[in-house]
Model the fold of this input.
Amino acid sequence: MKNRRFSKVFKVLLAGMLMIITSVSACRVEASAYMEEPLICGDVDGDWIVSSQDALTVLKIVVNLQKPDAERFSAADVDDDGSITSADALLILKNVVGLETIFPAQLSHPEMLFGFSDQELELYYGASYYRNYNKNIPASYMISKEIRVDKQGTLQCAGYATALAFRYYGEDVTGQQIYDEIVDKEMDGTVAPDVLASFIDERGGYRGTLYMGTIEHLKSAVSTGKAVILFSEISPSNRALHYMNVTGYDEKKIYVADPNVALAQKSPFYNREITYRDLNKIWQGIDLFIVVEKV
Ligand SMILES: [Ca+2]
Ligand SMILES: [Ca+2]
Done:
């Protein structure tokens, strides 16, 4: 097993404490500086608020009226292209009016977005940051291989979502078979995400990796064509934790093969659509997904 589990309550408490200590988002500020007085990504003038004043400060830097130190440079380069330009100022203005809620620099450095060091993330969640984030993902994507969604029994989603990932790669297995294969279940029959990733990893023929990331990271992973299992709540009205396979996305929603849905498949590729608005509700604060690869 690649990691050890804490009791869930302890884990949540620790995570909560860590979030309070380190929840400030910042561009590539070193950990030591980060502990003292970090600059928030986009907060170039250092008043702890991202405002139009920061966009103005960026423009002053662009026309050489101000010289940024390393930390301010980092806070100003919100598009993460290594230089400070009017494009950074524009992104800051978009952020101020709510059009751009996450800066590209934060997507490239998710540890600054989520506030966990790599070691903390591995220790408390058994997860890694999704660092393969591709800035140029297609606007929409759908898997090109037909899949069959088996209807799960109560609390069996871990086995059914994993079996669907294996079927995607051509292995003819049922959800029940895989659910029965998973030995290390919780008392109630559910499976923790780090344990499920380890099961996939150790079963042979596959690699299972638990990642923490944003919706952009999730879409980036899905667009690679690999099987991706989302760990989130079922729906805004059913907050139970759940596994389901993400098979595509477009500008408005993600497409999901959900083993909990009793409906017939809407297409050969999915049986449920989740808007980004709902995805935010059911996934924010969990932020975990498993990428299953064939090896
Ligand atoms: Ca500011
Ligand atoms: Ca820039």
The chain is about 40% helix and 15% strand. Residues 1-26, 29-36 have pLDDT under 50 and may be disordered. Residues 43, 45, 47, 49-51, 53-54 surround calcium ion (ligand 1) (CB under 6 Å).
